[in-house]
Design brief:
mainly alpha
């Protein structure tokens, strides 16, 4: 496994590990050779009654984010979690330290899945603060784009002046799925 792939998988797994109770809600993976359940790779979260209101809200938000992911994305996270658990403890700790050092906004971007999370730092200027009425539509749009298109959109997002971001986002949302690639190319060329 290359270092970049290992780091990417580990960041995705750390997102799962950071979810605490969310990760505990996942079914334990089966050992392919014996068929037995493998022990969970995440320590048990604190008991619900001991959590304050903010911690409970955070757990609920993380669980909602997990539930919003598709089956394929959840499978990728489980695989990444297994790869992280297979690393030596010092490498696991180094990756945890790196993940914890990330800006909270970027860590939260990983809650949207690996593909969006990888591009979230670039997408955040245009998509980090979306009106509640647009959130589902924006997530559907972002999840429908492939990796290259998300990369193009991240460049456009960073190039767009703050006063123009909402208008440009609305314009993109108005595009038919088949017209989005051309829209991205035309705005990237500007």
């Amino acid at each position: 496994m290359t270092n970049d792939l290992c780091r990417g998988a580990a960041l995705l797994a750390l997102c799962t590990l950071a979810w605490g109770a969310c990760a505990q809600a996942l079914p334990a993976p089966l050992d392919e050779t014996t068929g037995a359940l493998q022990p969970p790779a995440v320590s048990a979260p604190p008991a619900w009654p001991t959590l304050d209101a903010a911690a409970r809200a955070d757990v609920r938000a993380r669980y909602a984010a997990w539930r919003a992911l598709g089956d394929a994305e959840r499978a990728r996270i489980r695989q990444a979690q297994a790869r992280l658990a297979a690393l030596p403890p010092d490498q696991q700790q180094a990756l945890r330290t790196r993940f914890d050092a990330m800006d909270a906004m970027h860590r939260d971007g990983w809650r949207l899945g690996a593909q969006i999370g990888r591009h979230y730092a670039g997408l955040q200027p245009m998509f980090g603060y979306v009106p509640p009425a647009q959130r589902a539509q924006v997530l559907d749009l972002l999840r429908a784009l492939d990796d290259d298109q998300l990369g193009q959109l991240a460049v456009i997002s960073q190039r767009t002046a703050p006063p123009d971001r909402a208008r440009l986002r609305d314009d993109l949302l108005a595009q038919a799925p088949g017209a989005r690639a051309a829209w991205l190319r035309s705005h990237l060329a500007r």
